[in-house]
Every structure is written in C-alpha cells, then in structure tokens.
Amino acid sequence: MNRAHWMTTVAFAGMALLGANLATATTVQKFTLSDLAKKSETIVRAKVEDQASRWDADHKEIYTFITLHVLEPVKGAKGETTITIRQLGGTVDNLVSTVPGMPNFKKGEEVVVFLSTKDSAGYPWVMGLQQGKYTVTTDENGIKHVRNELDGLKTLSPNGAMSEAKVSSDQPLNSFLDGIKTQLNVDGKVQVDPTVK
After folding, report:
1. Is 149:183 a contact under the CB 8 Å cutoff?
2. Given CA atoms 18, 20, 21, 25 in this order, what sign does their dihedral have?
3. Angle at 169 between CA 24 and CA 162, to 5 degrees
C-alpha cells in the first residue's frame, strides 16, 4: 500500500468516526409520564427473561426480541404471563446494528415498560424509545426504586422546542406505580381523602 493510498484510507476512517460521533443522538417526541400512561396500550412491571437478535425476512434490518415475564400488570396485559417486544438494532454474528435512543435491556433486570399497540408483525414496542423504559433497582434498605435513563436522546416538545433528555432521579417504585394508577383511575391506586390536609 503506497503512502497516498494509506493517507486516503486514514482520512476516510477519520470522517467515518466523526460522523459516528455526530450521529449518537436520536430526536423523538417528548412524552410526560402522564402522556406515556395514557397513550400506552400496556404498562407492566416485569423481569427480562431473554433477548435475541435476528435478521428480518428480507435480510435488511436486525431486530432484537425481548421476552418479559410479567410481575405486575398496571394497564392492559390482564392474564398475560409473558410479553415479547421487538426493537430495531442488535447483534447478529459479528455485525452490530445500533439505534441511538433505543432502550437497553439486560437479562434478569426488573423494569417498568410502557408499550405501544402491536405492530403488523404482532409485537409491541417501547413508547418514546428510552422514555418508556424504567429500570428498577433495590437500595441497601431493600426498598425498590425506578430510574429512567435517557442518555443520547433529544426530545421535541409540542411547541417545537428541542432539549437534551436527562436521567431522572430515583423514585420509590410503589409511589411511581401509584402515580400511574391515579393518572389512569384504575384499581389499586392510592385513595386520598381530599378533606384531609
């Protein structure tokens, strides 16, 4: 390889890396928690049982299929014990397809997910990309909390303003779920007496 050809190759590689850095964010419509609760077909607290990636039938896109074991249905999913969702991207053989802003799942983790209606292939998607996935953690006192991790996601509000989404602070899981149930006016919500101050 002559020096000029080597320099050209290095220059193209550098531009490719710069392009990759510029393309690390995804812009999506901003959803409040109330929006997510009302627009979702299904909301569940679940444990990630498995995930697998594969090509679509046309060998054009890689999809990842995440199997969730339902621990608590919050909206919809009555009687369902497992739900399989799909999302763009994943790893097949040595090829990695990444979609910035898509939620990441780990086998064994506990999550609260807000899901869309099923697509034409019969799978729901996470609403608003990372906005619709909350990770459940347990603190040193055994109390469960949720956190929404939004790295690399830019949101667009209804008035056209764009902003960088931020990781939410931890919230107690029970309060978080009670808030959603109150929004939806469903069974299991906390009953508040408006006469008590």
Report:
1. no
2. positive
3. 40
Ranking 67-71, 97-101, 164-168 by mean pLDDT, the lowest is: 164-168
Query: Do 71 and 45 meet the contact criterion of CB atoms below 8 Å apart?
Result: yes
Indicate if the alpha-carbon torsion angle 153, 157, 162, 167 is positive or negative.
negative
Close Cβ partners of 146 (under 8 Å, ≥ 6 residues apart): 112, 134, 135, 136, 137, 170, 171, 173, 176
* Geometric angle at alpha carbon 154, from 125 and 150, rounded to 5°: 65
* The pLDDT value given to residue 187: 53
Give Cα 81 to chain centroid, integer Å: 20
Structure tokens belonging to residue 31: 């959803």
What pLDDT, in 10s, does the model give residues 166-197?
Answer: 666 789 999 999 999 988 886 544 444 444 44
> Residue 50, class by beta-carbon neighbours within 10 Å (0-12 exposed, 13-18 middle, 19+ buried)?
middle
**pTM beyond cutoff 0.85:** no
Domains of the chain, earliest start first? 25-184 (2.40.50.120)
Position 130, amino acid: Q
pLDDT tens column, 135-144? 999 999 999 9
**Tokens 């040193």 sit at which residue?**
140
Q: 3-class secondary structure for 45-64?
A: EEEEEEEEEEECCCCCCEEE
